[in-house]
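Q: I'm teaching a short session on how sequence maps to structure, and I want students to see two examples side by side rather than one. Could you give me a first protein with its sequence written out and its structure tokens following it? Keep the formatting plain so it prints cleanly on a handout.
A: Of course. Example one:
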Amino acid sequence: MSNSKEAIQYYLRRLHDGDFESAFFGVLELGPIALPDLIDTYRVEADGSCRASLVEMIWQYRDPSVIPFLATALDDEYPEVWKQAIDGLVAIPCDESLQVLDDARTVAEDRREWIEEAIEQIREILIAESRSPELNPPT
């Protein structure tokens, strides 16, 4: 396949055919250079299940640049999509992902329990990282 867009369309067809594993690992092999095209694909995808899979593929790169995208995916009406967005924010634990979830907590009544749990998970990760001797060598 000559470019990222063609490859993503191929893997999207695999996804629509029910071959999640092939699509998932194929997309991950494309590398983070495919992120903009994956996000564009998500924005035009009508199938909620496929959108959820795309969100999962996007956050698997654990690239902090996707946090604003994950924030928008929190508003998706399809529960599996916003759950994947929450998982992605937890997988990229930082002040920005914590802020996104904190902001979402006030507007997403049906998701509040999920969001509260994710906030707690991120806080625990950040506290553990701040105490880790290998991350904070003595001076």
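Q: Perfect. Now a second example for contrast.
A: Example two:
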Amino acid sequence: MTDENIDKIDEVEPALSPLAKCEAEAAECKAGWQRAVADYKNLQREVLSRQGEWAQLSERKILEEFIPVYDHLKLSLQGTSSKDQGKSDPWIEGVKYVLKQFADILKSHGVEEIKTAGETFDPRFHESAGEEEGGEAGKILREVSGGYKMGERVIKPARVIISK
């Protein structure tokens, strides 16, 4: 900088009073503080939103891990009622009770079984395991393995046999 430029700066600065300088600095500090408060509030909202997402993700992951156990319990009871007509086996009754508890817990968390037999095949909820003759084309004849959804989100698609 030349001496001439320095003289011009000195001429402009005295024009601002010390009060005006303080007011300008205070306004700048206030604007910075307001931005910081707004950023903090946005961060709080985002953290709360993420915590809710993490909680839902954790719940869904745990439920997804228990569904195969529930399916295996259901499979363990297939065919038992027809063999034991009139007889009550305490072990079978116990498994039925555990199965009912499992179903109640899944239901309380919004998990529903996907309807299959007699329904129209829907690739959003069903996975075709094969086709067979009989019935109306595109209808589900039987279920190979159960499917589950939580709201409209499919946790596990139902594997089904559909009619040709």
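Q: What should students look for in example two?
A: Point them to this: The first helix runs from residue 3 to 12. Also worth mentioning: The first strand starts at residue 111 and ends at 113.
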